[in-house]
Amino acid sequence: IIIFDEECFQGRRHEFTAECCNVMDFSFETVRSMRVESGAWVGYEHAAYQGHQFILERGDYPQCNAWAGSNAYPIGRLTSFRPISCVNHRECRMSIYEKENFLGRRGEVTDDYPSLQAMGWCNNEVGSFRVHSGAFVCFQYPGYRGYQYIVECDRHCGEYKHFREFGYHSQTPQIQSIRRVQQ
Amino acid sequence: IIIFDEECFQGRRHEFTAECCNVMDFSFETVRSMRVESGAWVGYEHAAYQGHQFILERGDYPQCNAWAGSNAYPIGRLTSFRPISCVNHRECRMSIYEKENFLGRRGEVTDDYPSLQAMGWCNNEVGSFRVHSGAFVCFQYPGYRGYQYIVECDRHCGEYKHFREFGYHSQTPQIQSIRRVQQ
């Protein structure tokens, strides 16, 4: 992953092959553009992997709205990031539950679903997740929009019992689309 | 599809089962929230299916950023919409070409690709498309972010020869992720 302190891959640059806890340690005030050369990564709004999460897959991100991807984020600030290590795109498997603590109706997710309701899920929320293998990105709105939550089999033992465990900023269990992370 | 003139499904509502060329004909100044009850639809910024395009699949869209989905759109205005009729999610097939007029390197797309470059595509652009069956959404940035272009086998005879045919507002052939439309 290569970060730049100006838009469109201009200004100072720094290349990373492993996690970065705080771009300010590399004299970056913020990241304004970025290239992901390989792998899948999670970017975070704040240092030490806190705040809003952004899935980052291979490609060019010439401005911060390229990763923020929603008006829900007034600032597409990116201060820390880490690679996602557990991904085998073909073998992602997760159970989703209507209620917290793995209660209520259960659904199996092994594919990409731009609309959970179209796949037959009961409502616009998911109460808890259990990731059996791989990693997924869960989104607030249909079509992979809105807040993003990256859930992985090798973090939290793959268990996300309550929406407050989905991510630092999660205010609601509203989840309407889910997709696998692609390496 | 049910539209509301206030956020969070409040205010006046109107239900549609077919295309709507201009919501103002139904005394809506704009759409502030929306529920898609079935099918896949395309929303447009302006009347008569002009301007920015937004893929709309089943689910709840409580505010305009739920469909605009990017800071690239300062206004998530939605003035017309129509159903996508040709979708058979399992049988979507499209050829993508490096250059306009179906020239240069060719790739086959039959699945969802959050990163075209990770799938082996040569660069961050697609010059032209030929949709053989079904419908796809093409996105400016990786991870289904940025400008959206809906391409269908039964519009334009499935042929999109030049980036200016992708959509009214298309300024560049930059396309970094593609997915099928799900009914």
TrEMBL record, chains A, B:
- Residues annotated as domain Beta/gamma crystallin 'Greek key': 1-38, 39-85, 92-133
Q: Which GO terms describe its molecular function?
A: structural constituent of eye lens
Q: Which GO terms describe its biological process?
A: lens development in camera-type eye; visual perception
| Swiss-Prot/TrEMBL keywords | Eye lens protein, Repeat
User: Which PROSITE patterns does the annotation name?
Assistant: CRYSTALLIN_BETA_GAMMA (PS50915)
The residues the entry assigns to the signal sequence are none
Which residue spans adopt a coiled-coil conformation according to this UniProt entry? none
The protein's superkingdom reads Eukaryota
A Pfam match is Crystall
Please explain the role this protein plays, according to its UniProt record: Crystallins are the dominant structural components of the vertebrate eye lens.
Q: Which family does it belong to?
A: Belongs to the beta/gamma-crystallin family.
Oligomeric state and interaction partners are given as:
Homo/heterodimer, or complexes of higher-order. The structure of beta-crystallin oligomers seems to be stabilized through interactions between the N-terminal arms.
| Protein name as it appears in the record | Beta-crystallin A4
Protein's organism: Paramormyrops kingsleyae
Classification of source organism: Eukaryota, Metazoa, Chordata, Craniata, Vertebrata
